[in-house]
User: Which sequence fits this backbone?
């Protein structure tokens, strides 16, 4: 492979990837063993004083090593939390943005190992909106990501919208011109772009006039995970229980325990103490005992992973069982696709509305769309893609590589921006 000093980075909420130019094409670099994608996760192992990424991070946490697991890092960009610090469990602390920089540095190192030389230039993907309805916070999010990339050693950066990158990947297989709605449903955001595509248009570097509309919502796979968690696991820990006066028990603890980047906030001495003092509120003391056990034994991340696994397990239609043996011996829950659909009704409605709003923003109607191009990890949720496709009866549903289409498209754009070398 010719030497190259640039790459494309898809830093995703749930999964990430790196693309490199190869002759007149683009390839994904191995980022974890032979895997071309890796979960966006970092584990600071305080037992062994090590730091691991991706699948290894999740496995180390599940294996019971002491330390700090961080996932869904992208979802905090633009929020006050992003500039804060988090404790690692050994008395030290690190800024969240520095954790993001470490993860990007890991992706950069993977690109360099594949390229055989240093990589200092990159195209980075970004969602249409890091933060909904807040342009200032959205601009801040991109600046924070840019600063993290610079800290990781990347000197020259270009940004491209992730759904536009997916359109490039889709366009590469077309033989005629058309109008495509790109639906990039990832872990943290659902982004839509209405793009005019075709074999002649793909030769142009500047494509601004071909992008007819952008829209997105800060809602996607991790939101479905949280809904599943609340609807199933957290119910067994007392969520939605009524106290002796008929009022619902405080629910903040459950929302935080079901949200990846907030789970560790539950484990402070103050909040643990507050949970212990809630016993008198529960008509079924088993619920309180399970909640205390989950907090004191720091089971939040493991329970969140079970909710995600349950979602994936029934996503294509079916049923599974959620094992809660570490909360209480022989405790398990049945879970099926009907429950998943019910749990995510509000999220599904908002995501479909965002798709329709994208087309309206271009003064077009659903009937004008030739195809919907689905990409992103959460397009594995069949009920969600059916709901989106159902709003565009005349459009042909097309499915790209759920985890790699954006990275490949970013790689195509990087080749156009930087050229070979």
Assistant:
């Amino acid at each position: 492979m010719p030497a190259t000093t640039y790459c494309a980075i898809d830093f995703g909420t749930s999964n990430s990837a790196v693309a490199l130019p190869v002759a007149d094409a683009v390839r994904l670099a191995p980022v974890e063993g032979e895997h071309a994608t890796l979960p966006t996760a970092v584990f600071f192992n305080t037992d062994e004083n090590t730091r691991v990424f991706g699948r290894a991070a999740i496995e180390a946490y599940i294996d019971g090593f002491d330390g700090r697991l961080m996932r869904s890092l992208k979802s905090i960009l633009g929020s006050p939390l992003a500039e804060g610090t988090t404790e690692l469990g050994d008395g030290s602390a690190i800024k969240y943005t520095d954790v993001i920089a470490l993860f990007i540095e890991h992706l950069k190192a993977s690109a360099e190992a594949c390229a055989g030389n240093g990589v200092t230039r990159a195209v980075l993907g970004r969602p249409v909106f890091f933060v909904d309805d807040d342009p200032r916070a959205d601009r801040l999010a991109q600046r924070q990501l840019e600063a993290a990339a610079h800290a990781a050693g990347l000197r020259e950066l270009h940004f491209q919208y992730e759904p536009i990158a997916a359109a490039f990947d889709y366009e590469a297989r077309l033989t005629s011109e058309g109008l495509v709605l790109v639906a990039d449903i990832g872990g943290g955001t659902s982004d839509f772009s209405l793009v005019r595509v075709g074999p002649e248009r793909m030769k142009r570097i500047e494509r601004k006039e071909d992008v007819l509309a952008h829209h997105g919502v800060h809602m996607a796979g991790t939101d479905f995970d949280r809904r599943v968690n609340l609807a199933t696991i957290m119910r067994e820990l007392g969520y939605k229980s009524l106290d002796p006066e008929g009022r619902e028990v405080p629910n903040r603890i459950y929302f935080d325990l079901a949200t990846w980047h907030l789970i560790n906030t539950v484990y402070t001495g103050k909040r643990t103490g507050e949970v212990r003092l809630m016993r008198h509120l529960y008509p079924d003391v088993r619920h309180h005992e399970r909640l205390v056990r989950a907090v004191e034994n720091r089971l939040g991340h493991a329970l969140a992973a079970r909710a995600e696994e349950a979602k994936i397990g029934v996503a294509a239609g079916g049923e599974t069982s959620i094992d809660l043996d570490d909360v209480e011996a022989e405790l398990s829950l049945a879970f099926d696709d009907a429950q998943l659909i019910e749990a995510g009704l509000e999220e599904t409605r908002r995501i479909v509305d965002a798709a329709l709003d994208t087309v309206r923003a271009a003064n077009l109607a659903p009937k004008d769309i030739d195809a919907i191009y689905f990409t992103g990890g959460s397009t594995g949720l069949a009920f969600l893609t059916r709901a989106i496709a159902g709003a565009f009866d005349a459009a042909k549903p097309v499915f790209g590589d759920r985890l790699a289409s954006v990275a490949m498209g970013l790689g195509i754009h990087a080749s156009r921006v930087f050229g070979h070398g």
Observations:
- The chain has three domains: 6-162+406-418, 175-219+345-400, 222-343.
- Residues 222-343 form one domain.
